[in-house]
Write a structure and sequence with these properties.
4 helices, elongated, about 25% strand, alpha+beta, 3-stranded antiparallel beta sheet, Membrane-bound Lytic Murein Transglycosylase D, Chain A, 8-stranded antiparallel beta sheet, about 240 residues
Length: about 240
C-alpha cells in the first residue's frame, strides 16, 4: 500500500508530494487550499470579504494561491465559534469561480505558511559544507549546502522515508522524510540513496551521499515543510 501511494505521488511536483504527505488538519481559523479553490470561493464559504483574506494573509497576488497553502480565514486574534463557518479541514468548496479569477494551481513549490508553526522541530545539520544558497520563499524553497561528492547526508530528525527515488524532475536522487503530522524534510541531488521507502530513520543516521544528480554542482538541496508549505530550515538548525 505504501509503495502504491508513493508511486502515485511521484508523478506530482515535489510541493504536491509534500503537501499530500503532510495533510494533517490545519489549526482552527485556517484553511488549506485545494485544487480549484480561489480567494473568492474561500472568502464566500467563510463569510469574509476577499479584501480581508488578502490582508490577513499578506497575499501579493490573490490570483496565484497554490494547493497546500494555508490561509487565515478568521480575523487575527480570534478563533471560530463552534459550528461557525470557518473550516479547518479540506471539505470541498462548491462556489463558482469569479470571472477573471484564476483557480488555485498545483504549485511548482508551495508558499510559506502565514504564521509560525505552533510546535517546533529540533533539527541537526543534514550534512557538512558551505551554504551556497539560502531560503527566500520564492525561487528558493530550501538551502543548498556544497561539499565534495560522497559527503555523508544524514537525517535531520527521526522519521519515516516516504519517498526515495529520482522520479521528480529537477531534484535528482531525492529522499523525503516524514517526521510527524506536520513536518517533512527533503534531500535532493544525492549521488546515492542508502535507505528505501518505509524505512524508519534516526536523527543523524546516514541516509545518502552528496552528489550532483539533476544539478550543475555537487550540493545537497535541503527543504523543510510545515503542513505542506515551505519554511526556512535555517530557523530550526543549530548555529555553527
Amino acid at each position: 500500500m505504501l509503495r502504491k501511494t508513493i508511486t502515485r505521488l511521484a508523478c506530482l511536483p515535489l510541493a504536491a508530494v509534500l503537501a499530500a504527505c503532510g495533510s494533517a488538519p490545519v489549526a482552527p481559523g485556517y484553511y488549506r487550499v485545494e485544487q480549484g479553490d480561489t480567494v473568492t470561493k474561500i472568502a464566500r464559504v467563510h463569510r469574509q470579504s476577499v479584501q480581508s483574506i488578502v490582508r490577513w494573509n499578506n497575499l501579493p497576488n490573490p490570483d496565484s494561491i497554490e494547493v497546500g497553502q494555508t490561509l487565515r480565514v478568521v480575523p487575527p486574534g480570534t478563533t471560530p465559534a463552534a459550528g461557525g463557518p470557518a473550516r479547518t479541514g479540506n471539505a470541498p468548496v462548491t462556489a463558482a469561480t469569479a470571472p477573471g479569477e484564476a483557480p488555485a494551481r498545483t504549485p511548482a513549490a508551495s508558499t510559506a505558511p502565514t504564521s509560525a508553526p505552533a510546535t517546533g522541530i529540533a533539527l541537526i545539520w543534514p550534512t557538512q559544507g558551505t551554504v551556497v544558497r539560502t531560503f527566500n520563499g520564492a525561487n528558493s524553497k530550501g538551502i543548498d549546502i556544497a561539499n565534495a561528492a560522497g559527503t555523508p547526508v544524514v537525517a535531520a530528525a527521526p522519521g519515516t522515508i516516504v519517498y526515495a527515488g529520482n522520479g521528480l524532475r529537477g531534484y535528482g536522487n531525492l529522499l523525503i522524510v516524514k517526521h510527524n503530522a506536520d513536518f517533512l524534510t527533503a534531500y535532493a541531488h544525492n549521488r546515492a540513496l542508502l535507505v528505501k521507502e518505509g524505512d524508519r530513520v534516526t536523527q543523524g543516521q546516514k541516509i545518502a551521499e552528496m552528489g550532483d544528480t539533476d544539478n550543475d554542482r555537487v550540493a545537497l538541496h535541503f527543504e523543510l515543510r510545515y503542513g505542506g508549505s515551505s519554511i526556512d530550515p535555517s530557523r530550526y538548525l543549530p548555529t555553527r
